[in-house]
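Homework help board

Subject: predicted structure for assignment chain

Our instructor gave us this sequence and asked us to write out the predicted structure in token form, then describe one feature. I got the tokens but I'm not sure how to describe them. Can anyone check?
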Amino acid sequence: MRGELTTFEEHPWQVELNIQADGYSVICGGAVIGARWILTAAHCVAGATAKHVQAIVVDGVSLDVVEIIVHEKYKHDEERQKEYPPPHDLALVRVHSTRPAAVIRLATPTTEIPIGKELIVTGKGKTEDRESSDQLREGKVPYVDNETCSRKYDGILPGMMCAGKENGGPDSCQGDSGGPLIKRDSQGKAILVGITSWGKGCGTTYGVYTRVSYYYEWIMKNTVD
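My token output:
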């Protein structure tokens, strides 16, 4: 990510997910959305079980993962996969407790994001030197409407959203998947509007995110304790 150093204290809902399953190892991000729930990307945890996933939050605290719920419509599509990842790229990770992390507020179907609004994406993914960061970073990316984004990508669906600059700039990258894209409201409070999903390269054009407001009802239905 072309971004600046930040901290988990500045983004206390941030989660680092380490997934090890079937001979592969993946680092992803996530966001704490409830007392027992983390929201992340389906492509990070699909095929994994609770024992394969380690969740780390503020102060380096490791949480006990209990269950993984991948969106039921997320599936591998070989034809689409030739160019774009599958849609419905979101999943829930249930833990015994998300303490000491903070809970971030979810965007709802009525949440508005003006075109050009500065959003913030965070993660520990690859940086300009193509190495994963050992510290949390943040990038400021302007919101782009789906119509504009579709000029770069043919596969933009209503459950997706885009942010960044057409010709490159701060962006999410490998290792940032599943992490939060946030909007600050008029009082400076954070709202989770997107989940890092996919894009072409890193820092070359718009990044594509799962649109949280589109899946708000699904999230609420599946996080009832």
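Reply (TA_rk): Your tokens look well-formed. For the description, you could write something like this. Residues 216-222 form the longest helix (7 residues). That's the kind of observation they're looking for.
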